[in-house]
Structures are given as C-alpha cells and as structure tokens.
Design brief:
The chain is an alpha/beta fold and 427 residues long. The chain contains 13 helices and 18 strands. Strands 1, 2, 3, 4, 5, 15, 16, 17 and 18 form a 9-stranded mixed beta sheet that branches. It binds zinc ion (ZN).
Length: 427
C-alpha cells in the first residue's frame, strides 16, 4: 500500500471552516501534505485515486463506545428488563462477567472493524470484563494497533465484584495510563461505571489514586435511579457528587447527563466538562433525553449500540423532530479540539496534520455550503458505510473491505468466539 498518494477530484470539508470543491489531497508518510486545486497537473509517478466528486470529511470520533458489547447481538437477557437496573443486571453485567481474554479480543475486533466502515478513526472505549480485569486494556490495545486506529482506553470501575476487585480495576486504569503517556496513538482515561455502582469508600479510594492529569470517563445521570442514589446519599445529584469527591474537572467525560438537578447544571456551567450524549442508546434503554437547552454543548457517542456516528446523528436529528442547533459542532469542532488535546498533530483536516479521513460514498449533486452541510450528512450520506477510511495516511477501508487484516478470516474467528461466548453466557 502506497505511503505517498493523492486523493483526486473531491469535495472536502473540515466541518467547521471550509468547503472546497474540485480539490486533491496529497498524503505522504502519514500526513496531509497538500490540498490543491484538481485542475493543477499532478505528478503521474504518485499513485492517485479519483474520488469523482465524493465528499471527504475528517476522520470521525466516537467519544463513548463499549467494544465489549460488540458480540452481544442476538443475546437474550437472562431475566426481566423492565427497569434500567434490570437491563444492566440481566444483560450487560451478565455479559461482561462472561467475557474472557479471547472474547474481549474478538469483541473489540468486531466493534472496531465496524467503526472503520463508518469512517471513525478515533474511539474512546469504556471497557468492563469483571472476571478478566488485569491486562484487559492491553488486549484491546492490540486490536487498535492491528487495525490502525487511535483511541483512549479505560476500565469502568464499579463495586459489583467487591472491594478487592475495585482495587484491581483502579490499577488496570492507572497502569494503562502511566505506560501510555507518550504514546502517539493510544492513551488512558480513568473509567468509572456510574455513581450508583460506586460507594463512598470507592470514590474516596479512586480520588486518592487519581493523578491530577488523568480525567474521569463516567456514565452520569443516565437513568433516574442514578440521580436518586446520589440524592439519597446527601448530594444534589450525580455531577454534584463527583465534584464533592474532587473528581470533576474540565477534561472529565460525563456520559448521558439526562437526570440532573439545577445544582448539577450550575456545576456543569462552571466547570465545563465534556458531555457526551448517546441518543440511540437512550432511546433503546427508555431513559429519557438530555436537555439540550440546559446543555447546548456536547459530543455524540454510540454507547456500544453501533460504530456508526453519522447514523447516530441522523437518529438524534429525527428523535428531536429536526430541532438541532449544533449538529456540525458536535460532529467536528468539538471532536477536533478533543482529539488534539490527546494527539496534538491529529484531529484537523489541514496540511501538516495526521491524515485521518472519512471518504464518504456520497457525491453531492446539489450545492454544498457550511450552512447546509449538516443536511447533506443526514439526508445525503444517511449513515451509510464509507467509500474509504484513512488513518495516519493508511487506507484502512476501501471498496467495502478492511485492508489491514484478512477480513474473511477475522470474521470466521469472530463468529467462533461469539459462539463460545454465547454458550458460556447461557450456562
Ligand atoms: Zn456507556
């Protein structure tokens, strides 16, 4: 595969500042070298791909995924699922206790292959495998490296398996964070499941162990029960509780933020952490929707439902009856800043930056502007797979195929691993 190539005849946008029609993007040694007009003659010695007017976007970010759930399709819950708590107990927590080293690996492989197909080049994973904690993040790391993706990894700490396990889960986060501080593609966060699965003792332990430059990544106010737990324990809500334990800062990733108090909203306003909404998951779990008037600035994640961020944006738009103010900001401006915080030379579709690109399989036949780009994404691309996905100048996906590994062999192995996992799940 060429290290130096040109994508020709594209419509290119960074989703924030510009849209260029009829341009070429030259990629060399992993970086975007030049963006030029297509009418200029190109060096015939450099391999080129004619995109025939397809729309090219920055590689997408999924800021909240659960790769551990990527083999769950078709699994029946082992009991009732009429409340959020029961959905967790009878499906997700039972699944994560069934995962072993093999199924962690193939689950991540399946989830990341799907992400690549939809143009996602950076994935923040929130992992749980309660009977295989130590070393689990390294197994997932291996898959990221094999496929060529960037990401932030963490283990979602909870009390479910007792205090000895809490310590093991804290250590898994810290070990990964410490050993990846200068890594160019993978870094760590401090994963926590949610307030309602973390006691006072656990939060104290976590706060004590947390380096100041290690942000938390936690489900926050996803269901009413999380809010209620915090209130019963003397706090104004889940954001307030995290703040009182000294865990909250501007780099914290707070996921969902649906059931919050006025005090919680005031703290969000003051601290300005990163909020990630997951509309497809929220609809699936019947937990309500985030208040967009209270929280106008947020990113969009998938919460393990899918690897497809543009498809999730389409769902989000429709679930809100077409009333969305900041769709492009959630898809591009905010992700760009967040990616650059961890990987300073990535996250921007610009000359000199790492070449992470989502080449959509969509040729706009009507005029594209920054004002109407969002509608081209929702109604034009419609959440379909990409034409090509490029990360660090490598083509990871092309002509419907994953390129970095033998996809057919991988799918066979994934199927076998899923079969074994499902058998053990029902045992
Ligand atoms: Zn989640």
């Amino acid at each position: 595969m060429p290290q130096h190539f040109i994508l020709c005849n594209a419509v290119v946008s960074d989703g924030q500042n510009f849209i260029l029609e009829n341009v070429n993007i030259e990629i060399e040694n992993g970086l975007i070298r030049k963006i030029t007009n297509h009418n200029k003659p190109i060096n015939g010695a450099i391999p080129s791909y004619n995109l025939r007017g397809r729309l090219v976007l920055p590689g997408l970010l999924n800021p909240h995924h659960h790769l551990y759930s990527a083999l769950a399709t078709g699994l029946a819950p082992i009991g009732p699922t009429d409340t959020f708590q029961k959905i967790l107990e009878n499906l997700w927590w039972h699944l994560d206790q069934t995962l072993d080293e093999e199924s962690i690996y193939y689950s991540a492989l399946n989830g990341l292959m799907q992400s690549i197909k939809y143009g996602v080049t950076t994935v923040f994973d929130h992992h749980a495998s309660m009977k295989s904690v130590s070393g689990s993040l390294s197994i997932i790391e291996k898959v990221y490296r094999e496929l060529g993706l960037k990401g932030l990894l963490c283990y979602e700490i909870s009390d479910r398996m007792g205090m000895d396990s809490v310590q093991e889960q804290i250590d898994e986060n810290l070990n990964f964070f410490q050993s990846h501080q200068t890594d160019a593609s993978l870094k760590g966060l401090l994963g926590m499941h949610a307030n309602f699965t973390l006691s006072k003792d656990s939060l104290e332990k976590i706060a004590q162990a947390k380096p100041s430059n290690l942000p938390i990544h936690i489900h926050c106010g996803e269901a009413y029960s999380d809010f209620e737990y915090c209130v019963e324990n003397g706090f104004a809500g889940p954001v307030h509780r995290l703040n009182e334990f000294g865990l909250l800062d501007a780099q914290s990733l707070l996921i969902h933020c649906i059931h919050l108090s006025e005090t919680d909203y005031q703290i969000l306003e003051k601290v300005q952490p990163i909020v990630v909404s997951n509309p497809e998951s929220n609809a699936n779990n019947n937990v309500g929707m985030m208040n967009l008037e209270k929280i106008p600035n947020y990113l969009l994640g998938t919460d393990g439902m899918t690897g497809n961020i543009l498809g999730s944006m389409r769902s989000h738009f429709l679930l809100r009856n077409g009333n969305l103010q900041s769709g492009l900001d959630s898809l591009f401006a905010k992700p760009s800043r967040l990616i650059q915080r961890y990987f300073p030379n990535a996250g921007r579709l610009a000359e000199g930056f790492r070449a992470d690109l989502a080449v959509t399989d969509y040729v706009p036949v009507t005029h594209v502007s920054l004002e109407n780009l969002f509608y081209h994404l929702v109604f034009g691309i419609q959440g379909k797979p990409m034409f090509m996905t490029i990360a660090d100048g490598k083509i990871l996906y092309e002509n419907g195929k994953i390129t970095q590994i033998d996809e057919a062999a991988a799918n066979d192995a994934i199927r076998n691993a899923a079969h074994t996992l499902h058998r053990r799940y029902y045992e």
